[in-house]
Amino acid sequence: MEAASDSADEPTPKIFLHARFEVPRASGGDDDHSCDHSEHTSIQSSLDINDQYFDTTNCNPAIIGLPHGAEPIKPEPGDYSYSGMHDQGPLPEPNEGGQFAQIIGFVNAAKKASDAYLTEVIEKEKVLAKAQTTEVTADDHNHKRKRK
Q1: Are 98 and 12 in contact (CB under 8 A)?
Q2: Total count of domains within the chain
């Protein structure tokens, strides 16, 4: 997809979004999301680093207005998404496409990917915590003194 430019002489700037997560490595965890950097400091080696890149090759532009065929409705209080309706009546349809729609698409994809990645990190931590708790409970049971 090519974004429109004001002048044929001006090149369209390449736009992209780069999200980087540096999450403390859980003991006993794996290196599925680690990047291979040639120089690790002691802090970097204790982190799982996850880089995510979003550009026109892996993201579609966002739809700014209402989906095709959807009727404008007055939004609920606190809902700031485009509803097609204002207190005084219908709003004009917004312009679709362009670089802002692409950037919004990148942000939406980045949010979805980061939610999935962080959920995976949390689930791994829960499994590790449960395994460690089970291990500690078994050790405590074996070390208790007998009552007289």
Answers
A1: no
A2: 1
Cβ–Cβ under 8 Å, residues 84 and 94: no
Q: Are 64 and 94 in contact, with CB atoms under 8 Å apart?
A: yes
Which regions of the chain are under pLDDT 50? 1-5, 29-42
Beta bridge partners of 146: none
The pTM assigned to this predicted structure is 0.62
Tell whether 147 is covered by a domain: no
CA atoms of 131 and 123, how far apart (whole Å): 12
Beta bridge partners of 51: 20
Other beta carbons within 10 Å of 109: 19
Domain interval for residue 105: 17-61+97-140
At 116-127, the pLDDT tens digits run 999 999 999 999
